[in-house]
Design a protein that fits this description.
With about 450 residues, the protein is of the alpha/beta class. The protein has one domain (about 1-455): Amidase signature (AS) domain (Amidase signature (AS) enzymes). Helix content is about 35%, strand content about 15%. It contains 15 helices and eleven strands. The protein has an eleven-stranded mixed β-sheet with strand order 1-3-2-4-6-5-10-11-9-7-8, sandwiched between helices. The longest helix is centred in the middle third of the chain and has 23 residues, at about 280-305. It is globular and about 55 Å long.
Length: about 450
């Protein structure tokens, strides 16, 4: 399996550019040491790690940054999730591409260049887990580690026509005491619901010191992928806040999945939490995202052991850092308070008897790589905010949410939907996903990597 994955990467990644660090020789040695009688759930299954968020000792983790690439930075110890991947006997082949510090919904860092969408090579794979989604969509590996702090599993999975689940807050292990990172939840991107469910069974569960924790389920998620035992009440949303136009293809995908859910016996209606269409004050995102850049620079200084210089980061990162150094503690607290207050109101919707909410993933189709590359710093910031309007509310609230492809456009671009549920209802999401996978059969559709002339 490891050798086959290596051959696929070597054959196709010259086009896609999803894998930025390779450890093929070490992976083959690790695979050879595994015994055929191993009872580990993933003995020998190849895995790619994202360039941040799941450290394994000795495996490069450069966060899409040129300075960390320059020194080939490698963590000295495993993160909690990195250790669990090892315990499951997953074999790490390498590391996938991502935007610098994960701060853009598009994957073309200056350090490593753009990752191309396997379905249409001049289109974006989204971000920040763009390399992970592209690697799975291209058939390099069955699963790839990903993280989601504002849609970073869901948008890339949708734009690459594969499956992505952001688990509930407290479902996955996190670094102890990290209050700055409560928006983010890691897992994997996969082609099938089954694969994500089995990985979730193998690695879920908080560790001592986690700020949030959910109890491990009484039975495995994979063992309960049968249809829900009752008809679910499901709301549909096709509008976006602040008058943002939703592409007709994205609306059509929501409507189509509504019909499929209804045909499966569920109760479907046009309904949504009012908070999903609430216009967010401009200062909320400006402060939150601005603080992310400031903290990224501070973290980089610790890893480099010296002050950061302009040529250590991308120009936009340097610009964002200098423009946000004046953010005060009271401003940051006000931004967090806004998110917490909205989340509290959002959570009440589920108490009205709703089980799921179906929305577009983003408001538009995959944009062309050159359009983002040529945009100004201010325009890139607006892209970040625009691409997360349907996604980020469930990062703030900690609720579970997933995406999967519903249809393909005439240009063969996959169009997905998001389905969200109350916090802790990951199993119910996976059950519905399995129903929809059977109806749509998206794993049967494979991207064509022979169209290199379309670059």
């Amino acid at each position: 399996m490891v050798q086959a994955a290596i051959e696929r990467i070597e054959a196709g990644d010259g086009i896609i550019n999803a894998v930025v660090h390779r450890r093929f020789e070490q992976a083959l040695e690790e695979a050879k040491r595994l015994k055929p009688t191993s009872t580990a759930p993933f003995a020998g299954v190849p895995l790619l790690l994202k360039d941040t968020g799941s450290a394994q000792a000795g495996v490069p983790q450069t966060q899409g940054n040129v300075a960390l690439k320059r020194i080939n930075y490698k963590p000295e110890s495993d993160s909690p999730l990195g250790a669990r991947f090892k315990q499951a006997s997953l074999v790490t082949l390498g590391v996938t591409n991502m935007p610098e510090f994960g701060q853009l919904c598009d994957t073309q860092p200056l350090a490593f260049g753009p990752t191309r969408n396997p379905w249409c090579l001049d289109r974006s794979v989204g971000g920040s887990s763009g390399g992970a989604a592209a690697a799975v969509a291209a058939g390099f590996v069955p699963i790839a580690h990903a993280g989601d702090g504002g849609g970073s599993i869901r948008q890339p999975a949708a734009w690459c026509g594969v499956f992505g689940l952001k688990p509930s807050r407290g479902r996955m292990p996190k670094l102890a005491g990290s209050i700055d990172d409560i928006f983010s939840t890691p897992l994997v991107i996969s082609r099938t619901v089954r694969d994500t469910a089995v990985v979730l069974d193998a690695v879920n569960g908080a560790i001592p010191g986690d700020l949030f924790s959910l109890p491990r389920p009484d039975s495995p998620h994979f063992a309960n992928l049968a249809p829900p035992q009752r008809a679910l009440r499901i709301g549909l949303l096709t509008e976006a806040p602040a008058g943002l136009k939703v592409d007709a293809e994205c609306v059509r995908a929501v409507e189509e999945i509504g019909k499929l859910l209804q045909a499966a016996g569920h109760h479907v209606e046009m309904a949504h939490p009012a908070e999903m269409l609430e216009t967010k004050p401009e200062w909320v995102d400006r402060i939150r995202f601005g603080d992310c850049f400031v903290r990224a620079i501070e973290s980089l200084e610790k890893l480099l052991g010296r002050p950061v210089k302009p040529n250590d980061v991308e120009p936009r990162t340097w610009w964002e850092d200098k423009n946000n150094l004046s953010i005060s503690a009271s401003e940051l607290r006000a931004s967090w308070d806004w998110h917490i207050t909205r989340s509290a109101r959002l959570l009440h919707w589920w108490e009205q008897g709703f089980d799921h909410l179906v929305t577009p993933v983003v408001n538009e189709l995959q944009y062309r790589l050159r359009d983002v590359a040529d945009s100004s710093y201010e325009q890139k910031t607006l892209i970040d905010r625009r691409e997360s309007v349907f996604l980020e509310p469930f990062n703030a609230s900690g609720e579970s949410a997933m995406v999967f492809p519903v249809r393909w456009t005439s240009e063969q671009l996959p169009v997905g939907v998001q389905v969200a549920a109350a916090r802790g209802e990951d199993r119910l999401l996976l059950q519905v996903a399995a129903q929809m996978e059977e109806a749509i059969d998206w794993p049967a559709r494979l991207a064509n990597l022979t169209l290199a002339d379309r670059i």
